[in-house]
Amino acid sequence: MMEDKRSVFLILYFSRYRLSLWVSTFYFVCLLISSCEPMATTFDDTGEASYYSAKTYTPVTDTPSVIRVMTWNIRFGAGRILWFGDACGERVVLTEEEVYNSLQAIVDQINKIKPDILLLQEVDINSKRSCYIDQLQWILDHTWFNYAVCGSQWKAQFIPSDGLGRMDEENVILSRWKISDAQRIQLVLRNDQDKLTRYFYERCCLVTARIEIPDFKNFYAVNIHASATATLDIKQQHITQFKNELDRINQNGGYFVAGGDLNTLPPSSDTTDYCLQDKCSWESYHSAGDDPMHKEGSDYSPEQHFLDALYQTYRCAVSDSLYKSDQFHFYTHTTRQDHYWDRTLDYLFTNYKWANHSVVVHQDATKESDHAPVSVLFILPE
Amino acid sequence: MKKVILWLSGIFFCFELYSQDSLTKNYWTDGTAYTIPKHRWELGLFTASRYGLGKNLELSAHPLMFFLMPQVKIKACWGEYSGFRLATEHGLFYPSLFMNLVATKGTGGLISPEFTIPQMFAISNRFLLSFRPFKKAILTAHAGIAFSIKFGPLNPRSTIDLPLIYPRLAVFYNQPEFDVGIDFRGQFIQRFGWLINVENFIICGTAQNYFMENKGVLVYTSKKETLRIEAGYKLCFGRYPAGPQWHLLPVIDLVFGIKK
Predict the structure, then answer these.
(1) Chain A residues with beta carbon closer than 8 angstroms to that of B65
(2) Which residues of A touch B154 (CB under 8 A)?
(3) Which segments of chain A are extended strands (E)?
(4) Structural domains in chain B, sorted by start
(5) Measured between CB atoms, does B65 come within 8 Å of chain A?
(6) Complex ipTM value
(7) What residues of B are in contact with residue A21 (Cβ under 8 Å)?
(8) What is the pLDDT of residues A324-349, one digit of tens each?
(9) A52-104: per-residue pLDDT in tens?
């Protein structure tokens, strides 16, 4: 009898308990959605990018004939920490020390390579997960770059999931020379998520900007971070939008260096399915009865020809023949903390000339991010 | 300036003319030094519910949040001196249950699941001093202090950086927390009232040390004083970990009154 009473009490208590949670969550969400600042930021198809400059100007005295261009996904200063979103980890909010240590390692690598133009992806400027550190300003102030522009990839006042909180992740172009006409171009949004998830989810973009190198007026940099986990048609559209923008610059007589994290493999990759490499210990793929059969974002088999048009129209820093000759040396990414690079996701393209044999995938940078930086020398047209 | 004063005086005079009973019966007195009548219940949908324990003693708690984030307050009125009514309010707040519940994976995770929230309590005490500049208006000044007791370490990265929530949980991360503010309310036509208040939170030992909330609402009270509807705004400013921020939020509440 006593146990019955206790059960009834517990049922009543927890039903009210759950009701309380829902009512309070609903109240706060309603309150914030209806507040002046939207919970998540949405963007126009094309909008102006944000401009940054270094605290102290580093004079550019040389008149270059070649410049070094580099792309790097810096993973918001998380280094190789087992973050919950991309590395089967439990971590969500990093410590200040972790972020600054990682940023210092990134800056050391940048200062060693000394690129003139740098395309960065996943740069946090005001996110809870990275202790609200303005990583872009910090990198600007600790390298020889004078200017930067950025476009938001993921911006929300508060994401009520996994303790993510405030998010502001950017795609960035850094330059020693002045930057103008910077634009953020929205890539197609995912359409396979429920409305709530889509509202708070990242909004992939590319950033274009004119780099004002003296005596060389019509030169552009384009930075993209394409979706890693969208459906095939959306991933294809991201690549198409990227190529369309390059075509537009090319048709207008401009020169460009373009690149970023395309989240797809080169056309002639030997391995295209990384489900087993990427799976978390509690997951199972490729076995009878597994649903889904493949891990989201790890099976590139259906995407093998996504980059064909780009390779055929423009010059990739790592040409198809070079890649075929030694794929291992051009791998730029791994999802596993203690493993070496196992696939290529990061690219640089131009419609002019790369200096022969100048491309380097800096595979020694194993601790700074889950992507390796790729740099190459661009020959400025006379 | 004189014009503004005259204009405001005019408004208050109008309020005076058209004021009704709610205030004198002490039905609408949360945030003032007055207590609700003995044995009267007031059940708020979003704000705290109140019960008149005695002539000068009032108990308040949030009916729904009580099961997640229990907060109980007792207000005692100590008398009226030269038109000034003095009360003290003493509260006990236990947020561990709620914080552990929202330290979860997936949707609803306001705190990262990597953090464990210890058992902890906050104790708050405040003075309230009210007087009636007009017959149907109450002006209240209040000041208080809160401090917390924790039975384990609380990770400073486990904050919920949202308006309304952050300043109320701040005392568990840094203390003591002081609050000072002013509340001004009255009635202007039959069954309709107004309220403007400003509340400041000052937290010691951190750079995120100041939060301000300004509320303005219009209030409708039913004829038999059994229902009160409040609607208005809340303007919040705070020095959050992400930097200074303003928020303008809507405020809607229903309060059901039972017995006198």
Answers:
(1) 20, 24
(2) none
(3) 46-48, 50-53, 66-73, 117-124, 147-159, 165-175, 179-186, 205-211, 219-225, 255-261, 315-316, 346-350, 353-354, 360-361, 374-379
(4) 2-258 (2.40.160.40)
(5) yes
(6) 0.84
(7) 68, 101, 108
(8) 999 999 999 999 988 899 999 999 99
(9) 999 999 999 877 899 999 999 999 999 999 999 888 999 999 999 999 999 99
